[in-house]
Amino acid sequence: MSEELYIYNSLTNKKELFKEIEPGKIGLYVCGPTVYSSSHMGHARSAIVFDSIVRFLKFLKYETKYVRNFTDIDDKIIARAKEENKNHEDISSFYKQEYIEDMNNLGCMEPDFQPCVSENMNEIIVLISKIIDSGHAYVNGGDVYFDVKKFSEYGKLSNQSIEAITSNTRLEINPNKNDDLDFALWKKAKEDEPSWDSPWGTGRPGWHIECSAMSCKYLGETFDIHGGGRDLIFPHHENEVAQSECISKKSFANYWIHNGLININKEKMSKSIGNIINIREGLKSWNKNVIRVLFLTHHYRSPVDLSEEKLLEIKKLLLKISKKIDSNPKSGTKSNFKEMWTNAMLDDFNTAKAFGYYFKYINDGLLSNDDISSIEEFENTMGISDWRGKISQESENLNYSLSKDAESEINQIILERNLARNAKDWDKADELRLKAEKLGIRLLDTKDGTSWERKD
After folding, report:
1. Residue 239 host element (H or E)
2. What is the pLDDT of residue 456?
3. What's residue 1's pLDDT?
């Protein structure tokens, strides 16, 4: 078994041999949610990806320090508070707690530290002061901006030149900026908005500076791994690199890991399309282990198509695997399963390949007691150690008989929902799906149309 870990580093766009800064210890920072609304399946995917990575690092006997932040000060939080006539702290506190509960319900381990922006204002202000003193930022009218062109390596993470960024990015036009590329480190206070005292007047931090300050506080100026969704590479992570390295003069994070995004029924998941699925909504319909296995049977850098059809395929597969394990006499000879799945994970955390071995070895033949132990070890590393008992309790019969009146009502709901979906009336489609759920029915959207099954 190879013990060398290789990671695809977004900074260099190649797979590299991993070398930790301090032998046997790994510091990992992952950007968490902005807590202004319920978290969605995109947040779930990122959390499950990094949960599996941390679990595997622990399996390799590394001492891990896992930090994931909460952005609890943001324009979106302030806007939501005004809409609901509430204090911004009430909004952020509610959705922060909801997110923590969602992560627990998805089977994700709690990070070692979960800092909030509002609790680290002193660290943020100190960091901004250092950036100003270094000549990489300027104050204008109570705002503080990072001077992008003063940092010669800007664009190295997203692999873009300054010219390309200027041409391809929609930039905020602001007369207080020296250049449209510059970004806010500190925003001057506005009426009826939360603010803190600073050397530049009352205000609040910009988005990007928060993660630089909190990662440095918990992991130091240089740490091992920084992670997040690939949609954060630019501008968020690019700006983190610039504002951190301009004062430390050394690498901010040695390895950058970015997970792929979620598609819903082959369409990009986005608020503008109206196809966002909240974590709580997903967990009402599907066992957490089905969701985890769907995500982890894709390489973390690849996109995942989330659909009723795909989830149903995973559920059927797990039911089949559960039967195979339960019926196996455990009289086989020891296989090389542990070596195979471990080597797959050592190759850039390839959970998809590891699960391929898992399904193959269970399907192929007799298992030994050692194999059963290796299977349990693998399941624990993937965060699905409790799945077999729960999945086995679910009915394999995906349909059940209804009275003619009830069946007619379901068919009418499906017809109306298809019309709503074709008209992109997503609110109506969701309303009809919930109506079906109240009848104990789960609607299944497939490439061949909509079918249904009993909601266990």
Report:
1. helix 238-248
2. 55
3. 42
